[in-house]
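Problem 3 from the worked examples.
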Amino acid sequence: MCGSVNIFCQSLGGSLATKGLTFYATSPEYVHPMTSPESPTATSAAAELRREYRYGTLNEQDVAADPLQQFTQWFAEAERAAVLDYSAMALATAHQHGPTVRIVLLKGVDARGFRWFTDKGSEKGQALRANPQAELLFHWRELDRQVRVRGSVIELADEESDAYFYSRPLGSQLAAATSAQSQGVANRDALETRYQTLSDTHTQRAPRPEDWGGFLLQPDQYEFWQGRESRLHDRLQYKAASGGWTIQRLQP
């Protein structure tokens, strides 16, 4: 691999060396030990990876009766623990060609639900318009915690989309106006040329694309997961019921 990008590899090797790490050049035939073993009886490095989960517990008597309150508490704890990108969440959708998933950023949560913004013409936007059901997954590795949130999805009003769009830095506005997300493009230069043209003519703010806006997931199910020793994890599931929520412990 590094024979064709030697300058990059030398630079990367130098930067890693300053952190006490060593970068080795590899050949195109190199097989990473994480890949599947050649024989059914062999064990891959991935299969051998394991560690104990010892950061906390999750008990029915300690959690809030309202899952939003419980989520808010865990979200604040992730912030205090300086979890990197703690607002990042996997967004899983499904359409006629099957399920898809990607990482997006949470941009708000309240009694109405969980909000994020995107190009609605993208793969996820088209999937949500065709099948307005989704699931979110937050993974806070530093705390050995996960939260799943499932529910129906609606589109936010233009006023909310405008308010968020124009709160973003100008560069982010321009990028959104430049890119027809998930659509093919000839090359990187085409994108950068389009971006430069927009930046030359919009020096204060960029036009919000008509199909760029927000979605809101309205939860009907939550699951809180806390890693425990020997993989005997804690899992508490909340399901919407008339006038409130039921809580059920799930087996790990």
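Problem 4, a separate protein:
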Amino acid sequence: MSRRSLLSIPRCLLETYDDDWLESVSGPALRPGGLELTKRALDMISIQPGAKVIDAGCGTGATLELLNSLGYDALGLDLNDVLLARASACGKTLKVSFDDTSLPSGCADAILAECVLNLCQNRKKALLEFHRLLSKNGYLIISDLCLKPGTDRDQKNPNRKRGCAKGAAELNFTLNLLKKIGYFIVSYQDQENALKNLSAALVWRYGLKDGLGRLGLMGADCRFKPGDLTYALIIAQKKSS
């Protein structure tokens, strides 16, 4: 794999999750909704124990451990060495770029991409790679920050450096992109309350500036106001032909 491929997620974003500031509030899942939202999504797809499931952006291994406990043949992918060292205790892991995994085509019955797409410099390439990896009728579960409809996407600061809000796109943009690539949209849900709950907990623990600033939700690096964002759960399925 090329050095360029390994840099598909900026180092400054990977380092955002290296310490325990977020985990102390969110728990090991490091995202709004935590494992409860993951369980809810898994209940909505038709895969059986033994199915091959990829956790793209496995982080500390919380979802990887859950998948293994449910009887799935799980593989965690990530680029962060610190997090991978922890995740490896929860199951099989691999250090790869999400837009060029070098894994066999059709090797996964389901892929989870939770708080991952917004960290990728090229969302389309990552979604194309996930599509290649999925077996026929395989499922892609996405949960991530989204811009609310009508948000001015021209609010840009060239000096912004970090935060999972940095790459946020409008929900319809992602849905349309999925359809063009060859996915069928099974379901999409607004999970804004999960985002509000995590944001409130971060502010309570660290204060407004540090609590939201580290996620890129305010400050010099921010593209927009926190109220411009929501959190979405998307379930897509690879078309059989």
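Solution to problem 4. Residues 136 and 241 are 8 Å apart (CA to CA). The chain has ten helices and eight strands.
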